[in-house]
């Protein structure tokens, strides 16, 4: 995704609006016209292709699609277009695990050494640790080698060998750290206890009962099956190389539509798949992680869901229990702060104020950027090093790679990779960090 300080209005409309389904009326404060304006504006300025669905108490109240499934053939997207959903898959995999627990095939406290005896600390790591990312098992997607083999087919045994060779990142249960390896292992365990392929289990246990006709474990992208290619933006939309989903399985290998994702969330929270006890376990949050589910907050509303990124696909699915509201966004091409878009879609429903994006040029000189540079330390010990390079501000958390920040005016910057918002106060020497799904801002002070 490009990172620039001058964002120009794109004068030519490359993409026409997609197919829309009829929606049911809703008596909430839902500002549909503003949501239309937001999505149309992004679409017209080459910022977004994809689908958005909202469902209230089982009734679709908004469903629209924009852009193309395939730019080369000009195959238009519709609300039935299917997208790779990346880590949203984890919610469905976790649901399968709790289904297995209820059928007495697994339990949360059992350790994984019966299945993976050669993984470090296998005799200490429980199924619960895998579900809430407290296992200490290194994530295979954090390994630079992953990007060399991700386009190739890998058998489960080959992936297991890769994961088994990692050293543990930390002692099991001591903290939470997101790892795709956890959910790959859960997929393998499910296949073992049911003696069925993972894709078949997904259909049998979730998709068939909830009538999710467009959700499944994916394979090679098939445009004839209403699947879509994904794109990233440079000076034009560039088609992304496909990941072979054998490397992902239940960690990120599923395909779905925005409509199916809202139906899945409603079925999950209406207890049509698992029990209240299981749902409570899934939604119990510790260190910002549930079991296959993450918290999502917008203004004074609390929800649960998960995001997903794979290739140029970005998606998010959220459920607000108090409002019986499900929101899903699936995109195959976005050149905009996706986390901010998700937040603004929710604000449209809840009637919360926000400003439509302004794609007129926002200029800032290297001299002006100097006032934001420095080392900022948070109360929890995290440290951001903020520097500029070639007229672009960059932030680096601890020893992680530095990421470019896009200037939005009024001391605000966005990290487009994950949607984090950085707000500086040069007078006090403080920096606020706002992340999607986190209710409160993190405050960092300049050293």
From TrEMBL:
Gene3D superfamilies: DD-peptidase/beta-lactamase superfamily (3.40.710.10)
UniProt keyword terms in alphabetical order: Hydrolase
Protein name: Serine hydrolase
Residue ranges annotated for the Beta-lactamase-related domain, each copy included: 51-333
Keyword Hydrolase found: yes
InterPro entries on file: AmpC-like (IPR050491), Beta-lactam-related (IPR001466), Beta-lactam/transpept-like (IPR012338)
Superkingdom: Bacteria
A Pfam family hit: Beta-lactamase
Upper taxonomic lineage: Bacteria, Pseudomonadati, Bacteroidota, Flavobacteriia, Flavobacteriales
């Amino acid at each position: 995704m490009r990172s620039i300080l001058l964002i120009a209005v794109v004068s030519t409309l490359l993409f026409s609006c997609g197919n829309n389904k009829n929606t049911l009326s809703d008596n909430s404060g839902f500002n549909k016209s503003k949501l239309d304006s937001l999505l149309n504006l992004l679409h017209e300025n080459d910022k977004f292709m994809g689908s958005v669905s909202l469902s209230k108490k089982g009734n679709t109240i908004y469903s629209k699609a924009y852009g193309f499934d395939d730019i080369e053939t000009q195959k238009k997207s519709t609300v039935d277009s299917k997208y790779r959903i990346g880590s949203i898959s984890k919610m469905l995999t976790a649901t399968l695990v709790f289904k297995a627990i209820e059928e007495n095939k697994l339990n949360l406290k059992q350790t994984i050494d019966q299945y993976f005896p050669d993984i470090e600390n296998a005799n200490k790591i429980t199924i619960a640790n895998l579900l809430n990312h407290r296992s200490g098992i290194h994530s295979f997607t954090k390994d630079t080698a992953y990007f060399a083999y991700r386009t190739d087919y890998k058998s489960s045994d080959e992936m297991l060998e890769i994961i088994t060779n990692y050293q543990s990142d930390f002692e099991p249960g001591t903290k939470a750290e997101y790892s795709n390896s956890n959910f790959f292992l859960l997929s393998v365990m499910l296949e073992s206890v049911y003696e069925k392929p993972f894709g078949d289990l997904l259909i049998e246990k979730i998709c068939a009962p909830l009538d999710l006709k467009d959700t499944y474990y994916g394979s090679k992208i098939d445009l004839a099956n209403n699947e879509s290619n994904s794109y990233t933006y440079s000076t034009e939309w560039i088609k992304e190389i496909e990941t072979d989903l054998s490397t992902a399985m239940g960690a990120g290998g599923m395909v779905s539509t925005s409509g199916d994702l809202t139906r899945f969330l409603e079925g999950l929270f209406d207890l049509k798949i698992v029990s209240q006890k299981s749902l409570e376990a899934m939604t119990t949050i510790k260190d910002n992680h549930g079991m296959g589910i993450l918290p999502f907050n917008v203004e004074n509303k609390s929800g649960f869901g998960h995001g997903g990124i794979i290739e140029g696909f970005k998606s998010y699915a959220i459920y607000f229990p108090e409002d019986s509201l499900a929101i899903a966004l699936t995109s195959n091409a976005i050149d905009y702060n996706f986390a901010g878009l998700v937040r603004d879609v929710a604000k449209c429903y809840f009637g919360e104020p926000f400003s439509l994006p302004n794609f007129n040029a926002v200029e800032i000189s290297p001299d002006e950027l100097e006032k934001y540079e420095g080392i900022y330390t948070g109360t929890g010990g995290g440290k951001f090093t903020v520097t500029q390079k070639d007229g672009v501000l960059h932030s680096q958390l601890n020893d992680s790679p530095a990421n470019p920040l896009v200037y939005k005016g009024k001391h605000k910057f966005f990290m487009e990779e994950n949607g984090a918002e950085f707000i500086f106060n040069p007078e006090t020497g403080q920096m606020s960090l706002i992340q999607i799904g986190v209710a409160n801002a993190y405050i960092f002070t300049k050293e």
